[in-house]
């Protein structure tokens, strides 16, 4: 079994990139749903300077940056923090269990983005093409 995993190891940067791109695009979609109603949502668009409005802006900006792999670590740090705050402000008061309080996506986003802060963007990122300073 170790031989199989050893043969898969060279693909780790590419699977990390796939995780980064998909998490970024899903996060971006949450922001566009909040601010622009696309994909369609049940509620009205929030005021831009409300907590939900600012959250939507953060989701759009950081989601796009993460998907592109541009400034991945700072964008993922901000997105992870936003999801932690969102969980404790909006989901945790509705109950202890994330599957019941609707916070399972917030927790998952929080920890995926926290992982990206430490792991970096992986392969195929714009960060990898920027000159090192």
UniProtKB/TrEMBL annotation:
One of its GO terms (cellular component) is plasma membrane. It holds the Pfam family DoxX. InterPro entries: DoxX, DoxX-like_oxidoreductase. The chain crosses the membrane at residues 12-29, 49-68, 75-93, 105-126. Its main location: membrane. The keyword DNA-binding does not apply. It is a multi-pass membrane protein. It comes from the Bacteria. The keyword Iron does not apply. Keywords: Cell membrane, Membrane, Transmembrane, Transmembrane helix. It is found in: Cell membrane. Belongs to the DoxX family. PANTHER family: BLL4328 PROTEIN, OXIDOREDUCTASE CATD-RELATED. This is DoxX family protein. It comes from Methylobacterium gregans.
